[in-house]
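lol ok so funny story. i was supposed to be doing the assay writeup but got distracted and ended up predicting the structure for this chain instead. priorities right. anyway since i did it might as well share w the group, maybe its usefull for someone
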Amino acid sequence: MNDDQQIHRAEVLTAKDEEVKVMIKKRLVDEKVTVRYQQWLEATVGEQSEELSKTAASLHGWVYAERAYDEQRCRRILSWNGLMTDADLPVGAMIPEYLVAVYQHSCIAVYHRSVSGSSGSLHGVPREVPLPEGGPEAERLTRRLYRTAVRAVYALGLDYGLVRIALAARGKLAVCGVEPFPTMPLGVGERYATAMRTAIGGIEGNGGARVDGGAASTVDARMAAAGAPHGRAAGESTAATSFGAATAFAGASAAAGDAAATPRSSSSSGSASAASAASASAASAVGVASSTELTDDDRIVVGLDVEFVLTDSRGALVPADRYLPRSGAAGHDAAIIDGRVIRALAELRPAPSANPRQLFAHLQRAMRLAASRITDPALAWRAGASPVAGLYTGGHIHLSGVPLGFELLRVLDNYLALPLALLEDRRAIARRSVFGWLGHARQKPHGGFEYRTPASWLVSPIVSRGVLALAKLCAVHRDTLRRRPLTQLRMQKAYYEGDDHTLRSFLTIWKQDITNTPSYMTYAAELEPLIRLLDEGWRWDEYTDIREAWGLSHPIRKIATPARIRVPTSSN
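and the output, tada:
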């Protein structure tokens, strides 16, 4: 046997050895999943009701648990989703650690271990940390831990899990692992059983309608009675928009719904009075038509806050607070640039509506209001994902009348965010792991939630009309839109890396599913132009002034060179 033959034989044997190692590893992981799953079922369900057993079996723990037990794969997935992992920690570092148990968007418990090793060694007994009275969002560290845990569980394709999070240098959080079937610390299994019973109670309390994730259903009656302001926590941006009593019920006047959506800040008593009046009007409508008589099409209300920026002729950022107030349908919002808080973002917060066409009309009204306040015609309006380098803008969609759950987010990711990613400027890729990660959502005080994954789709009226109609269609038909291409790792990777060829492979099936929904013909006028843009491979350009596309008076201008974040000296 000559040297080449010996080398070839060695390569073949090495390849076979690797295949055997992979097979053995997979078998061990599968056995681990089976054993842990049975232990978890015994700890959570035990001899309890058959309905509780069915709820446990229907969750996404069993299907994708092997991702959590494969450490390298787990780290890779979490990194795609913009999360820091234990691989990013200094070797041998001894740092505080938290264990956060979550069930979809419910925080089950938080435990603290005073010190653990970055290499995976554990020291000390974890002690439970009492949750703030206002819930996990009420205190900064707990809020960050909770949001990180939810993000990690969702990224792995799970519905629940116990997430190990290290508190690293400069307050950074690193995910050190996810246990899909937690039975320890002692008593955590019973906490999950309670969460599942809450889910079952939510179904019964909602007239038999399915409730994702066990969140109690918030019908329009509660939303109207609350009249709560639609606040935003720190993140991509912060704003205050009223979403309480967003729309009247079937048979109620449209005027009540419009008044209910009047945006306000905490210091705006006039807007608060308008919201209260609208709340009373919408609450009166409950007497005309009870929530059990409403269809999802009537019940589900869509709102939004969508951002854009102002730039001068050199492409420098001009802070929006020079022209727009903080609150209102056309206001400003804050962003952190180079460690400084600058009120740089212009934000539109139109009155919500159950009708996407009416919502689009409200959006046009908000744009005209912004145009009347931004008095310098030389400034360009730019939208998209990153219209100015290093600054990201979002097109956040608010949904009420439908509970926040992982399955609904998977519908929105696959049927809204995925096709929208094919229209985005290539510069949008950088935003996806920072603000536009899959499943990015926040519960809101008004009882609904905010879907934050999309970039600012304000680039075109055609895109905007399509997005609003598609959001409503996804929410209404969440039970029939069952495809989940983004649960495949190659598709998830393609989303974060901007591999449009791979993402586009789902487009034909996406069109079939969308056009087969009962609501498609209702919104065909909005959706068909959007589909044509997708078929043509059109992309938006984030350096284009959007005003001409929206029929505003100022001419379109395009910045030829990449814009820079340079805040001009204020003339005031």
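The first strand starts at residue 84 and ends at 85. Residues 203-291, 555-572 have pLDDT under 50 and may be disordered.
back to the writeup now i swear
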